[in-house]
Every structure is written in structure tokens, then in C-alpha cells.
Amino acid sequence: MAGQGLLAAPVASSLISCSTAASATKAQADTSKTANLGTPKITLNVRDFGATGNGSTKDTVAIQQALDRCWVLGGGEVVVPAGNYLTGAIALKSNTILRFEKDAVLLGSPDFADYPVMQVRWEGKWIPGHVGLIYAVEANNIGVVGPGKIMGHHDLGGRPTAEKPLRHPALIEPIGCNTMRFEDFSTDYFRMWCLHPTYCENIVIKNLIIRSTGGNGDGIDIDSCKHVRIEGCDINTGDDCISLKSGRGMEGYSLLHTTEDVHISNCTFADSIFACIGIGSETSGGIRNVRIEHCKFTFAQTHAIYIKTRPGRGAFIEDIIVDDIDVAGTVAGFLRLNMLGSGLQDQNPVPGDEGIPTVRNWQFSNIRVKDVPVLIDGTAVHPNKPLDGFSFINVTGTCAKGISLANIKKAKLRDIKVTGYTGPLLSISNVTGSGLEGATTIDPPKLPDPVPTPTQPYRLG
């Protein structure tokens, strides 16, 4: 199968570099080159290559031949007309768009053997695993567009185990790719990620309807990618609707492939197990320049937004801007900050104070909440590296409890006009800045044990 055996090492030198951006405004980066892949040179129909679309015959070979033929002829568009196409993993090649017409459905095979094994990311680590139903490796100018539907086989979802250590297949997974679009289709999967770009650059994800309820069913996982635009999506998932990651432990810290310049706008989120938007906890490559705006959060089993990491990750989370959002239906609250103990500790964590992530410049403004249990749970911040710059401005609505913050400098709180809460609106420990008048004092957070320096230095391999 195309792609089998590729990426045998955790990282190839030809993958995207992790050069950083100058400011948070890059989250609104010029994506015109991403959205426009040019006029297709040729158009091929999968039916002409033997695809049946009858829902029972495997059409893997026919669809792959159409994609390969399109690629060798210089690129263009491969059309999937109405029908139900049962298939194993298929690989996109450079300069090729896969278009699903109305009433076209791609059905994932139930057989793990139909998904080649290579190095894939799982919870911030490169491990052997099955590729996605639609995947690509180091391909440029690619896309998947609708209005059809892509359905993974629900029996393939789940987590790797000691008995079955291979990672299960994602639904769509480009790795090391540049310039791509995913637009105007719907997905259905269960207990696994729907869209998982890794080490990619220049991505547009637009007008998707994502359904992935139950278990570890993330909607969109942005994993060590940069220049990403997500807009107009309707996402209802089990685990995070959108998760931003960049690696875990010394492996991720050594590779330092940062997730940066991510712009999320005009989306609707609902989550039945965890948070709607999770930043972390795999942050060892760093996360910066993220802008979330004009979005609606309709339900979250925990928090609408959860920013999370832990000592042992290293790197940074910086320049996070959230503006003009509506939040309702959260079981735990609007916002949680957890820098002390989120996620699995790595087998090779970044030791000492170097392993405590640097966190700075987080801005929240024009927030409208309805009956959230807690406005902000923000005490789990390490005093050795306090959050440097936190603003919470123009917040209205109703909440049961207010704001608790710890280990923050340069805080700016203004125009917080919420009602319905009991107890103090603001409770703090080791917080400096403006808008703190009348705050009650709380105990500092309990700190985890320091991460020790290993007897042998870490080496990639």
C-alpha cells in the first residue's frame, strides 16, 4: 500500500521546520494560497477505475488508482459520485483534490489489515500505528471537499493497549504536508479522531459537520502544525471538539515542532465527555499565536475552554486570544487553567525548572456566559513560572461561582458584569495587576513533586 514503511523514524529532515512567528496577529494569517489550489488540470471519476459504490465491495484499489493517475498526470480532481464506497486506507498525492459529490459516502473498512502501519502521533509521541482512512505523507497542494460524507467504521475506534499496542486509525490524517483544504463535508466516527494533521503547514478547515461522540473521539486535533484556519464548523464530539498539541516529554521538546498561528472562528461546539477546546496537555513543542473568536459553545461536560500542561513538558504556551464568544451548557465551567498536573507524565520528562512550561499573554474579551457553574478555575499555575499577562475584559451573563486565580502577574480584569453567583466574585493567591480590588485571599495551590534530572541524558532514537 502507498505510504507503508514511510516515516520509519520519528521525524524526517524533509518535514516542516518549526520556525516561529512574530505576533499573535499571525493567527489571522494570509491563507489565500491555502484556500486556492488552482484550477484542476484533469478530472477523473472513480467509477471509471472500477469503483462500484455498492457499499459491500471494497473499492480501495479503484479509488487509489484514480488518485495515483491524477497525480502522475500533473494533478487535478478525483470525483466520487453518489454511492456508498467501502474502502481501506487511501493516500492523497500532491496537487490532488478528492471531491465527494452529494450522496457520496466513503465507508471505512472494518478490517485493521486495510490500514497500513507506519509511525504516527499518539498523545504527543511517535509510535507505530495504523494510518488514517484518508491519509497523506509529505504531499503538497491537497484537499478533501464535499458535500459528501466520510464515515469511519466504529469497531476500529479506541485506544492502544498493552495487548494491541498499534494506534487505531484516525479518519483523515495528513503528515508532513503543505497547503491543504478540507471543506464542506460531514464526518461520522467513534472513539477516535476525525481530522488529525501532524507536522503540516497552511491548512484551511471550513464548513465541516463533525460527529464523533463517545470515548476519545476528538473532532480536530492540530498536532505540531502552523498557519491553520478553522472556520464555520459544527462540531459535536465525545472528547475535545478541537485540541491543540505539540508533543510530549523530551521527544517533543527535542524536536520542537511548534503549533502556531491557529485561527478558529464562527464555529459551534458541543462536547459530551471533556472540553470543547483543549490547548494541551501535550505542549512540549510549544503552542503560540492562537485566536478563537465569534464562536458558540453550546455544551461541555467539563469546561468550554481548557488550557492544560504540567511540569515535565517544557516549552511554552503564549499569545492566546479569545474574543466574542457565547458559552452555555457547561457542566464544570467556562475556563480552566491547569499548568500543574494535566495529562500523562512522560517516561522521559523535561527535568527541573526547564520542564515547567512558560505561560504568557492570554487575553479573553467580550465573553457572554449563561448559567456556567464556575467562571474561571485558574489556580493551578506554578509559582516558579507564573502566568505573565492575563486579561479578562467585558464579561456578562450568569454564573454560580466567580473567578479564582493564583500565581499570575500583570493581570487585567475589567467590566466583569455577571450575576447569580454565591461567594466572592474574585479569589486570588499571589496575583498582581489591575482590577483586583475587593478580592479575597485563598491558599496557594498544592505543587507536584519536582521532576528530577535523569542519570543518563536523553537521546532521540
Can you give a write-up of this model?
The chain has 461 residues and is mainly beta. The chain has a single domain, classed as 3 Solenoid (Pectate Lyase C-like), CATH 2.160.20. 5% of the residues lie in helices and 47% in strands. It has helices spanning 32-35, 60-72, 249-255, and strands at 42-45, 54-58, 76-80, 83-87, 90-91, 96-100, 104-108, 117-122, 125-130, 134-137, 140-145, 149-151, 172-175, 178-183, 186-188, 201-206, 209-212, 220-223, 226-231, 234-237, 242-245, 259-265, 268-271, 277-279, 287-300, 303-308, 316-328, 333-338, 358-380, 387-419, 426-434, 440-441. It has a 27-stranded parallel beta sheet that branches. Strands 5-10-13 form a 3-stranded parallel beta sheet. A two-stranded antiparallel ribbon has the order 8-9. Strand 8 (117-122) and strand 9 (125-130) form a beta hairpin. The chain is globular and about 70 Å long.
